């Protein structure tokens, strides 16, 4: 258990290290693509702005006309606005909003940029943002509407546009700084572009790297799980084989010890003169020899099944008759060791069976019902024919089988963990034998059980 936990812990740590390394790599690739995307569109947008530099309005013709018309109507009210000190902030804010709305809604610069990006083979959809840095209305009197805290340090018109956003947001790219002067206003503003679906664009470019990283993680995890499962299975099989060798040694030692003691008994002079004792000892040797031979034959048969297909000598047999014979023989053979009840409803069905193997299968289940019982054994045997199958249920009142053990009880050499090896002797081959015989007849065997509540084995064979 300690070794298994150590292997599992090392595997988990290795996977965590791998995932951490992949996350760091992906994060680095993502940041690199982010910076490349920002640099690409910053360069493209400035190239586009540079191509319009010879034009006076650079895509703001409609804006210039509308703002001049609006300013003309407002400058006439400047003297009155300045007199009303309390309403002056609200009026300034309303004028600023009006200018900002016209700038954002009526400009043609965004359409030009979009076309320029598309012609260069890049994403053309983006959001734009215009930030007014300075606004003055000019008439007989001048009214300062807005002046940003940075506007005093702005470069004069004609210089190259800034290359970074004032706020340091890399998703926003400042394309250019503009200044519009007309009859009734003086306006300075900055034009920004922002890719709202920037993550999708980066994800598209990093999809290959991300996919390979995820694939490598999945492959490593799957390989680890398969390796761990195989290791645990190897360990389980090794333990089963060790238990089998111990059980087999114990099982073989019992008849051998008895035969050895019986042989030494026959050497005693007082026994050689007693014909009755000689006969009794000879019968004991014969009985133990038969038991020893049965154990060896069972092991040889199991080995043969592993190498060749199961060979059956099938005959059409009335299932009612054969079940009655098997149960009667078991009852008399074990000396009424259990209370047996039978209930059959086979409707006279005849089934193609190998009589020897079928009898062995039923006897194994009946023997287990007696063997694994800590009280007076009571066995209920039911049978019926339905859907072209015969169904035989053997229910007992034994010690039961846990959910964990139920998954393995039909495996070769497996013995339920609740069984005490000294109290419940065996090689772990009985139920394996039962399963193989049922499958060789084209059927199956299942179990339903709860610890302390007994077990129900169900055999299904087609006919």
Question: Rough shape?
Answer: rod-shaped
User: Major β-sheet, in short?
Assistant: 5 strands, mixed
CATH fold-level name of the domain at 315-462? Heat Shock Protein 90
Gyration radius, in Å: 47 Å
* Separate helix tally: 12
Question: How much beta, percentage-wise?
Answer: 15-25%
Low-confidence stretches: 152-169, 418-422
Distance between the termini: 47 Å
CATH architecture heading of the domain at 315-462: 2-Layer Sandwich
Topology as a string of helices (H) and strands (E): HHHHHEEEEHHHEHEEHEEHHEE
Percent helix among the residues?
A: 55-70%
Report the top-level CATH class of the domain at 315-462. Alpha Beta
Query: How many strand elements?
Result: 11
| Main sheet strand line-up | 6-8-9-11-10
Mean pLDDT: 79
Task: Kindly describe this structure.
This protein is an alpha+beta fold and 463 residues long. Among the domains are: 52-196, no CATH class; 315-462, Histidine kinase-like ATPase, C-terminal domain (Heat Shock Protein 90), CATH 3.30.565. Helix content is 55%, strand content 18%. It has helices at 2-51, 61-75, 78-83, 88-106, 109-119, 198-267, 269-272, 275-307, 319-333, 355-371, 403-406, 430-440; strands at 127-138, 142-147, 172-181, 185-194, 315-318, 339-345, 350-353, 378-386, 389-395, 444-449, 455-462. The chain has a five-stranded mixed beta sheet. A four-stranded antiparallel beta sheet has the order 2-1-4-3. A hairpin with a 5-residue loop joins strand 10 and strand 11. The chain is rod-shaped, with a radius of gyration of 47 Å.
